[in-house]
Amino acid sequence: MTDQHAAPVAAPRRSAGRRLPVSVLLSLLLAILSFSSLANPEPAAASTFSLAAKCSGVTLRSSASTAASVRTRLASGSGVTAVAEVTGSRWTASCGGSSSGSVWFRISAIGGKSVRSLYGVSYLYAAMGMFKVVSVSTTLYVGCSGTSLRAAASTGGALKARLPIGAKVVSNGTVRGGSWSVTCPTRATGTIWYRITSVNGKSVKSLYGVTYVYAPKSLLVASLPKDPPAATPKPPAAPTPTPVVPTASPSISPSGTAMTPACAGANLRLSADVSGVVKASLPLGAAVTVIAVFPGGAWSAVCPTAKAGTEWYVVTAVNGVAVATTYGVPALFAATGVLAAAPGSPSPSTPSSPTPTPLATPTPTPTPAMTPIPIGTPLPVQPAVCAPLPTPIPTPTPLPTPSPIPTPTPTPLPGTTPAPTPSPTPAPTPTPTPSPVWNCISGVDVSNWQGSIDWSQVAAAGYRFAYVKASEGTAYTDPWYAVNRANANAFGIMIGAYDFAQPSIVPGQAEAEADYFVSIATPRSGDLVPVLDLETTNGLTPAQLQTWVTHWLYRVYQWTGVRATIYVSPSFWSTYMGNSTWFATNGFRTLWVAHWTAALQPTVPALGWGGNNWSFWQWTSSGTVPGISGPVDLDRFNYPDLSPFRIP
Questions:
Q1: By three-state DSSP, how is residue 547 classified?
Q2: Quick one: DSSP state of residue 530?
Q3: Region of 462 on the Ramachandran plot (φ > 0 left; ψ -120 to 50 alpha; else beta)
Q4: Nearest-CA neighbor of 144 among 186, 207, 93, 198?
Q5: How far apart (Å, rounded) are the C-alpha atoms in residues 140 and 223?
């Protein structure tokens, strides 16, 4: 399909004795300016139009009126920039063809120079009929983080960039290209791509060395969501639970703490237990990076003196090289007794004796409340019950009773009464076959894309829990989080907060994102444990992404004492996390799996999540729930009791 927005629009051609009707001219212009279903109701408010004068002597006036003063006259072909169409006084023109109307262009620049700098006013005005449209540029925003920009309008095009939510781009049209499928904000498919000329005010040419980059149409929006109204739950709000996030910040710095072996032969193990496989024995003087202290199995050591304990250091680098690079796992563990602070570095404290070293910004205000579960402890014993209930066997429809052969009614004798005719017995009505019913505890997960939600209807429909987006990256707060949290709780729906991950190779970014998430989510007693929503790599390799996830998870653990849940699709985990079983077998046993299927069970990555199976299952992205406009993600819980998955 030819891109009608970028192709120059020639001046209407005249034939002898014929004029182009005004209605045709206006229809042509409207066709050029109609951009997409994402455009604002007033496209000019989000678009700029590059125009060229159709003849010499085109007048620009101080207002949209033929009586307004003329500020300048343009030569044929002169270029201007218009930012809007306005209605003014009626005009007639014979400029590249006769036309008339009352629509004027509001001009902001002439020949690349602003009207303000040239004439001391913000805008000048010109009759629409005096210009031809050269191109239309529309400002759009990235609606979903991780939006890919490609060198061609195809999913096979070279990836040039991934943009975070809110990034501003300018497009000069749409083109038909290869098929795409996205899940932002809901699942969508298509073949129309935006052709993008600039990103965050910089030209695509200067950024990526190509004239254009392309993005699927549904990933860009005309405006970002506005802040919602304050929460106004209908019933009286329940007492506010006491937050359980810390009064003091974690004692380990965002970039980790430098440590060294306290004696030669300090072991680094695959798990926080003396039965864990030894991956390295360190010599004196080796340098390691520790990001957290974690409870594990009992140990004893003579290094350099006798000591014992159950706390383990989480080690992510040895001699400046990431553990993931050297050993193929995100982290290794060392008994706290065999490492000492490197010269000039403070020793990281254990959870039992935190050092109050407050963070600069943000400063969350929670304290560990959940008793840490030692590694290797099985999950609470609950039978997995999430499955359809047996379909009842329908009551068979009885066969119709054959009509009896009529018996001749004898003629009664004179003076006698005839016997009454018996009424037939009606056949029973069959019981309808009910639809299959799942016996799982059901929930939803929502974000700003759902807008205002009537949680009273959601609760009445039987939904017991809701995961609510709190943050994304290190700066974005979901504007509906506080409203959704308050209103869902007010109607008895338990909530859990999630962070949409924006991984980065920048040192300390994972900790900074976890800090920001905790400060926004403010986890409280009774909430479902926090969630890391893992959907994008931002270009990280599997080893780098495993390291980033490790840092985020342990940072949240330091703040809350709670092991976060991981949300991920089977394909993402298998492809971009190397199908690692390390997390499932090292304390992070709760999996929220995203697998949209009509099957009776989802696919579970990492060898059935290290044998722990799934706990939550997002089984569709296109559910319909009373009180929520449009499609919404629906979730099932695998066990009969949510208590073990809540913050105590």
A1: helix
A2: P
A3: left
A4: 186
A5: 7
CB 85 within 8 A of CB 129: no
- Asked if 311 is an active-site residue, the reply is no
pLDDT at 318: 93
Is the pLDDT confidence value at 420 over 60? no
Catalytic residue of the set 478, 511, 533, 633:
533
String of DSSP letters for 320-373: TEEHHHHHSSS-EEEEGGGEEEPTTSPPPPPTTS------SSS-------SPPP
Distance of alpha carbon 542 from the chain centroid? 21
Can you give the pTM of this predicted structure?
0.59
Structure-token match 């008994």, residue found: 335
Q: What is the chain's Cα-based Rg?
A: 34
pLDDT in tens, 270-325: 988 888 899 999 999 899 999 888 888 889 988 888 889 988 999 999 998 989 88
514, pLDDT greater than 80: yes
Query: DSSP label at 639?
Result: S
**In contact, 250 and 314? CB cutoff 8 Å:** no
Map 117-182 to HEC letters. Answer: HHHCCCCEEEEHHHEEEEEEEEEEEECCCCEEEECCCCCCCCEEEEECCCCEEEEEEEEEEEEEEE
Distance from C-alpha of 141 to C-alpha of 170, rounded to nearest angstrom: 9
Grouping H, G, I as helix, E, B as strand and the rest as coil, residue 391 is: coil
DSSP symbol at 475: T
- Mean pLDDT computed over every residue of the chain: 79
pLDDT at 559 over 70: yes
Indicate if the pLDDT at residue 16 is higher than 60.
no
Q: Which of 85, 273, 527, 535 is catalytic?
A: 535
Of 445, 472, 478, 635, the active-site residue reads 445
- CA distance readout (Å), 27 to 22, 33, 122, 608: 9, 10, 29, 60
User: pLDDT value at position 613?
Assistant: 93
AA letter at 568: V
Is 535 an annotated catalytic residue?
Answer: yes
Query: How large a percentage of the chain has pLDDT more than 90?
Result: 42
Of 249, 248, 381, 372, the closest CA to residue 648 belongs to 372
Task: Express as a percent the part of the chain with pLDDT over 70.
Answer: 73
- Give me 185's structure tokens: 């904000």
User: Best-predicted range by mean pLDDT among 234-238, 322-326, 637-641?
Assistant: 637-641
Which residues 6+ apart lie within 8 Å of 147 measured at CB? Answer: 162, 163, 167, 184, 215, 219, 220
Active site residue 515: no
Residue 21 has pLDDT above 70, yes or no: no
What is the secondary structure of 551-614 as a DSSP string?
HHHHHHHHHHS-PPEEEE-HHHHHHHSTT--HHHHTT---EEEE---SSSS---HHHHHHTT--
Instruction: For residue 1, give the 3-state DSSP assignment.
Output: coil
Judged by DSSP in three states, 426 sits in coil
In 463-502 the beta strands, taken as DSSP E runs, fall at: 465-472, 476-477, 494-500
